[in-house]
Amino acid sequence: MPQWPAHYPFSAIVGCDSEQLDDLGLALVLTSVSPEIGGVLVRGHKGTAKSTAVRALASLLPPVEVYRGDRFSVDPADPAQHSPDGPFGPGTDVESRPVHLVDLPVGATEDRVLGSLHLEQALTHGKVAYEPGLLARAHRGLLYVDEVNLLHDHLVDLLLDAAATGRVTVERDGFSVEHAAKFLLIGTMNPEEGELRPQLLDRFGMTVEVSAPTDPVARAEVVRRRMAYDADPGGFAARYHDAEEALADRIAKARGALDRVHLSEAALLKIAEVCAAFEVDGLRADIVTSRVAVAHAAWAGRETVTRADIRRAALLTLPHRRRRNPFDAPGLDEELLDRILGEEDPPPDPPQPPESPEDPSEPSEPEDSDPSQTPEQPEQPEQSSDEAGPEPQGPENADGQDNTAEAQETDEPPNTDTEQDVGEGSEEAGPPPPSSDSATSTVGSTAPYRARKLTVRGAGQGADGKRSRAVGRRGRRIGAAPPGSGSGSSLHLVETVRAAAAAPREGERMRIRPQDLRVAVREGQESNLILFCVDASGSMAARKRMSEVKTAILSLLLDAYRRRDKVGLITFRAQQAELVLPPTNSVDVAAARLEDMPAGGRTPLDEGLLEADRVLRREQRRDPRLRPLLVLVTDGRATGAKGAVARSLAAADHIAGQEISTVVVDSESGPMRLGLALGLAARLGAEHLPVGEINADALNTAVRERAA
Fold this sequence. Notes:
- It is a single chain.
- The relative contact order is 0.08.
- Helix content is 34%, strand content 17%.
- The N and C termini lie far apart (84 Å).
- A 6-stranded mixed β-sheet has the order 19-18-17-20-21-22, with helices on both faces. A 5-stranded parallel β-sheet has the order 6-9-12-3-13.
- By secondary structure, the protein is an alpha/beta fold.
């Protein structure tokens, strides 16, 4: 029976050969060479060897020396580090051990991450002792978070504090402990399941996008190696033993060579120029790019940072820092990067002039110095006429439409007999909406704005978020309840003693029985499922109306991202409703589907409502605690086959009977309105919200003006 090794060999992963590393392999190696880089975020779909590569990395790192019995792994060679298990004298035994790879589960508790009261010591010996958490174990090692984008906000806050200070302070349960917590933070995530908080995203030194290879030869090689490993793990690992040893030795040598790598002033200025050109926020990008460039030079065996080192460093450190909002696609314009870097390597630093013996405090200047011999300043890339874009012509805007005409255009009065919503003479609307169900048109959105907060009625018990009221384990304390009620988990000592005191007693001594225990009930906020049900029929095909509606939905999607909600998208047009995006945590995908959403055809409102009901019931079975909010975007019209209006009202009554929190976003505009959406909202028992009132800033301005 073969013995399974602890991991799949790193060098056996296709693309992680030491002589030809892909982006994933290179990023993991560089952060091992220079831990100060700050770790790696690996983004990719399932089945792309993200976790396999991370778990295989730990065996390549040099072992660390620790005091025997020290649970906090302080460095014996660093007198500034102090362990809560210490003090350790000069004669304390020192041992060498492999680097720890610590998994941080998505569902971990705060006690497990920070550490907590050692219950065995407390109950058996009556001592208040501290049990170290995962951050203490990860010190001088690897902290691995799989699905890091699904990590709860309170755990993200703990990671941010530890990553920023390199220390952890715990003050709770009668003890106060502070210990070092410096680790390589490596996270993996699937972008389809939601994005990462910007604060934590910036803490990762590098980011890598991985995908399955498209070359059939490479795919076959991946399968061949995996099957060989499954058939004989020990023999497979033995075949790659020499490659693993060579890779580990090269990492150790590169670590030792870091201090000998020189980053010239010209190279540093070039890095600053690159970061400024891509408009990254803050200066962490400049610092991390410099460190990665130095590590890459050490890995390549060079003693000077070159253009190639800067280029590779920029591709690994800048893509995730240039995103202005969650809907921006990650990546870097490599053509712009090459223009900034130029063709030549940064020149070396000029020799330092000798100090004048007469006045050592003031360096002398050579007599034949020439001001033109100062280090070359970075040149801004020239922008050709093609890159600058066409010259503006008259009052036309970027879409080729006349702004003067657009300012005067409004929707024509609605026509109940046809799907056409805009008069034939309107230039803004373009051609009239198609009358057939097969013809469609697509209109883009404008820049999103700060959306008004929409909430679910009542209080739930869902996952931590920032939208609706919730009763759970986090938030302000509002009461107490017996354990097991689902309201909380932390002991409420005062209410426990009060319940015990109120119970009948035998003698004068009060005893706390199991039935006297009370846990704290807290009120916080939860995340919700936001299901958009959007009318994409011909009545929405007017350019101005569809652009306004898409911008409103995009703004609500951005708000859902910030509040950690799950989102889904249904559209209805022609003869049917379609689930364009099943409920997901990825608002990026929802935004992309929204931009490509066509409009045209009739308005099967009943089909849209019934499809929403089916989706919500299915999600309710999957997660009963996840409360939904249905956002219906429509002008209230129902057209199609005979009886469309009656069927729509029946569907609305059915939704109302399910007691689903609903908001009707009224897309009707123009001087003459039918008010059908208002009647539909009343039938649904929903909040009615004109599309113009989605913008929270505009609404606040209108309220202030009216109050004045």
